């Protein structure tokens, strides 16, 4: 899916959340400005809190997975391993999908 961000609305549309793939984050990163690359993380974070507060654990878990991926693979800010580890553990706690669990040992190895 082509990731579309409405910077005026900091929460991803509910129908889109589970369709966002890591490759969508990579494609966005490759085409975005430096500011938008960072701002995407905050859209993911805001969306996570929104869906968590709404009791939508599956969507919140997927957003945690996406944040872990984006931090660890794509954005790689200082502390990326520690932050990614936090979010992948949270994703697994919310929805222990094999897709999420596969990332735990990769993140543990570091980048």
Give a description of the structure:
The protein has helices at residues 14-17, 22-31, 34-53, 57-75, 80-94, 98-101, 103-109. The chain has 111 residues and is an all-alpha fold. The N and C termini lie far apart (27 Å). The mean pLDDT is 95.
Short description:
The chain has 111 residues and is mainly α. The chain is built from 7 helices and no strands. The relative contact order is 0.14.
List the main descriptive attributes of the protein structure presented here.
111 residues
How are the SSEs placed, and which strands pair?
Blueprint: H1 14-17, H2 22-31, H3 34-53, H4 57-75, H5 80-94, H6 98-101, H7 103-109
Helix pairs in contact: 2-4, 3-4, 4-5, 5-7
